[in-house]
Description:
Blueprint: H1 3-21, E1 24-25, H2 27-33, E2 46-49, E3 64-67, E4 75-76, E5 79-80, H3 82-92, H4 95-107, H5 112-121, H6 127-136, H7 144-153, E6 162-163, E7 167-169, E8 172-175, E9 179-181, E10 186-191, H8 199-214, E11 218-223, H9 224-229, H10 231-248
Parallel strand pairs: 2-3, 10-11
Antiparallel strand pairs: 1-2, 4-5, 6-9, 7-8, 9-10
Helix pairs in contact: 1-2, 2-3, 3-4, 4-6, 4-7, 5-6
Amino acid sequence: MDHEERVRRAVNAAHEAAIASGGVVCRGSAALAHGWEVLRIPGRPQVTVPKGRRKERLDPRLVEYRKLNLPEHQVDEVVTVEWRTLSDCLRYYPASEGLCIADSALLHGFAHDRLVELAKAARGPNAFKVKLVAAAVDERAANVFESATRAIALSVAGLDATPQVSIYQDGAFLGRPDLVDRQLGLIIEADSAKEHATVEGINRDAARYDTFVIHGWVVLRFTWRQAVHRPHWARSVLIAAVERRRTELGLPLLPRPRILWVPSRRRAA
């Protein structure tokens, strides 16, 4: 089953669960319903039901329920409205996953100014995460894989990884890598298996990476498994590369920041 079909089934299942329970599709399930990308498709439909709903109507083995009375203006039919969906995802998901959803929301038309206002108004549980993500969101991000990789880069002192930067050398276009730090001459690529599924794709990217290297760029490539399931390892690689480049360029090393973007250690899947 391809990714698009998995998303379609997840959206349909969430709608059915919401209707059956008299609830509302929320969080990651709602993000999918709005057409946004998520780093991980929820394993169960996520639904908010009114407080006091009879327990026999709810089966937590099949649906992830939350009990909350939502005002009418925060619901559109059986799905939380966009701003409520985004607020919930940023509050209750790991910051890296929240960034993926926020980047995608902006890419699909959610106004950056609205997100800024949402962050300014955020109060209560995990409001700091809403503000953290809003300050880092970037609509130039191409996909959630790239956003997840950028989230790791945000936890590395002295690294300024900008998405989708066009690189030219002597007037010639070399390419547009996923993430670029111009000062350090560092390129970070989120290498998907899909892009390398053909001989043509492998040859194209190999030539592109070689071209960057011979023009003086340092190229780091991360797979989905490394960026999503081994973020602490990926971060350690970025730290080593940044410290080496800053030393080579005579730039000061900076104190390592608190790790806010890299989720708690978990066993690689």
